Amino acid sequence: MMRIYKYLLICLSFAFVLQSVSQSTPIDSLKYSIDETKDVAGQVSLFIKVAEQYKSESLDSSLHYLHQALVLSETNQLNNSPDIVSKLLGVYSSKNNFVEIQSLGEHYFVKISKEKFPLAKLLIADELAYAYIATGKIDSFKQYSEYVISNADIDKEKEKTVFVSALRKRASYFISESKYDLAILDLQKAIQYLDTVDYFQSYSVYVTLADAYKQFGDYNQGIKYFELAKNYAEKYDSYRVKIHLLYSYADFHLHFQEYEKSLKYALEGYDLVLNNPDPYGEVVYSSILSKLYLNLGEPSKSEDYIQVVLTKAPEFQSDEIVAIAQYDLGSIALLRGDFAKALELCQKAWKFFEPTVSLFHKVKVCECLAEANEHLGNFAQSLIFLKKVSIFKDSINSEDQIKRTYQLKSEFEIEKELAIYEAEQEKQKIIAAQKLETKNSLFIGIAILSFLLVGIFFLILRNRQTKKEGRYLAEKEQAQTQFSQELIESQELERKRISRELHDSVGQDLILLKTKAVLEEKYEFENLIASALQNVRTITQGLHPFILEKFGLTAALNKLVTSVDESTDLFVSKEVEDIDGLLDKKQELNLYRIVQEALNNVIKHSGSPSLLILVKNNKTMVEVKIQDYGKGFDQAEKAMLMNSLGMKTLKERANILKTQLVISSVLGQGTIIQLKIPL
User: Which molecular-function annotations from GO does this UniProt entry contain (predicted)?
Assistant: First the structure.
């Protein structure tokens, strides 16, 4: 009987062990392996694996095991500390813990060698750039984003991914500064690598493009890029991406005053951050919900969310979010007639926004301060802030004109770049197919060497096919050239239209306002209006040279060179012979644009003390020579220059003139640009 009991006990124990093993998780198995492993390097590797497993379940647990890995690695002087730090910063980034990112990242960025750990140093720099832009420390952000962009090797897949991430972050910064042309250029570069980077970076690039078109006011283009971003977000399937996409949707619809749609996305995202939980996400969503309820006429609900922002935002050094919340509370106090409280809150907000370039928020805060001071009897103070409102609104109107110009330019450039990129991708596929087919042909030729006649027949067939494909490529290239030239013509027409509208509407209105200011002896406004009028004339002339239509190409070129001579420190020498009537109108405009762009490049980049412009009529051709005596460039820089977007446009214009752009340069001696246009 005792033997039977022992047997049963053994069976039950064995069954319990089997059940425990069957219920153990991969994390439990890894933890068990840590205890069993005696090798320190093996333990560090296992700690990292446990941390990776915990990333989707518990960020705090992931941080715990990564810290253990880092301590063990540092104590035993292993060489994988930089990689562990880059993973730690990634987790802190998911938690929006910018203080830890800055502290830990700065220490190891200085400590580690770029030569020994290039990827880890790039990843650390990229996370530091994210932390600094999120906390408004722009100079530090620029330092680290430029490090990534300058040092990443795009021939290495992982470094290419960090490079795209840095470009996308810098584009977001440019958008916030209204530098849309620079943002679009960065996004164009990023788009070229989207097929080879991870889903998260592809999502980030497209959602940033959507944000750019939101700022342009182009609703349809914004929705288009949001759909592309949504596709990658679904493939990536991450909490962080979900809350970012929902917030971006909410902010997009809020911008276009679609408050109900915006509220739907904002509440969905808010529920998500509360369930995780995510304190920083709660701050960001509370900020947008407060704005929505204020616009929907529910100030009490708005006030509840503002209190969440004011309570939790300081933890993340989010001073701008706090300042916006203080202004929103001030606005609610105005609605309720509590003018003293409104003044107190808006003064706090003004302390933050006064030194910034955020004109929109400056206008709002100054309006609040003006109204509160007026009701409290502080009329002098109220008048000061009303004057500031007027000045800031004038600046916003000027920015809107510039923004529209940027929009037209950027839309043209990005569509052209995408078309070139797609054509290049198609060309590369055809070349790859040709190489594969050639390899197969050689293999077949060797295999059927004994059947010489059959082999010759096969080669003849392949030759015909290659010629056919060559013709197809030539036709495609011709179609691409025609497309580029049509885009240039379309751009010129749009520039001309905008220029006329600025001249006929805004220009005339400013002249009337200036006359009125003179009659009413408001000389301060007269000077402001005169300055604005001159800016409109400068923009109008830059968009379309009406002097070219009225007085001809020779006069237009002389005027262009004279304006450079008068507006810069360059010593300008010129010899412009009469070439009127030698070229048709389209050719004249394109030659003018080439000279204009070349002169702009000399002013911006050459550092030259002087400039020589020659335009000669040699009976059979028109010769143009533009020479500076600046810093010049070497062959490597020339290769980069010839592949730039601006140079591609110049080459297309030269094609319209049935000639080629010849550029020669010697480092330290200057650059010569020459054109020979046949008549």
Answer: phosphorelay sensor kinase activity; protein dimerization activity
